Amino acid sequence: xxxxxxxxxxxxxxxxxxxxxxxxxxxxxxxxxxxxxxxxxxxxxxxxxxxxxxxxxxxxxxxxxxxxxxxxxxxxxxxxxxxxxxxxxxxxxxxxxxxxxxxxxxxxxxxxxxxxxxxxxxxxxxxxxxxxxxxxxxxxxxxxxxxxxxxxxxxxxxxxxxxxxxxxxxxxxxxxxxxxxxxxxxxxxxxxxxxxxxxxxxxxxxxxxxxxxxxxxxxxxxxxxxxxxxxxxxxxxxxxxxxxxxxxxxxxxxxxxxxxxxxxxxxxxxxxxxxxxxxxxxxxxxxxxxxxxxxxxxxxxxxxxxxxx
Length: 309
Ligand code: KPL
Known about the structure:
- It is built from 11 helices and 12 strands.
- It is an alpha/beta fold.
- The structure holds ketopantoate (KPL).
């Protein structure tokens, strides 16, 4: 089995390790010559650090513009990069290719299923904790699981070869609900921590932030309910508090993106929720305010970036 991976960030590298260890051949698809050069400088290897233990794995890389056919593709790019990244390799995708999308956010999965029909698409979420300390070098921050489910079909199978992976891979028949649950958690934690510049755990210890988070959660629940989505068996606020406690020392991915002046996934997280609300004729004052605030912070970075070039 030969799996190509689009997106060589922390989750892309973790998955590369899992797939290599399962006996698959793994090739990263890199966007341009400069990324290929960085990969060559890293010894054509990925390095994973777990506490004091370090392991290196040799993988291949190919440029997006190459021509070799792709029959198995894992996409671990940032959510906003999904469509542009896929379109850069469209000429290589076999008509019966299997595509796995392992990303935050909602909306892009349905768009991929529509645009790349009749290929088989799986969407997934992961609770693995990892961060990238340098290109192709990842630090493992917590062992989690990968939950995957097929889009647009009721046949519950895993992608080719994934049953051989020696890690928790959960086959989920109702992946849409799993994506909504992850979306709800990300909507409640990410923008608020990004605006406040705080750790996830601070949402629990600062009464003002906890109150705000409760308001945000109530709005998310209203939309989920209007869309017929059951979220958790407990109120969303309680589920979010549990995750914030488990990840108390983390800086959310959105806060990290803002701090590093990178584009955030706000449009695929709170933006998706607010678009759903607009379609339903509903308003979400707390979530809309967070969306506006993150958009304006991002725009400041881009304007600054453009001015300094
Ligand atoms: O998924 C996360 C993220 O930061 O994107 C949470 C669960 C909020 C953990 O930080």
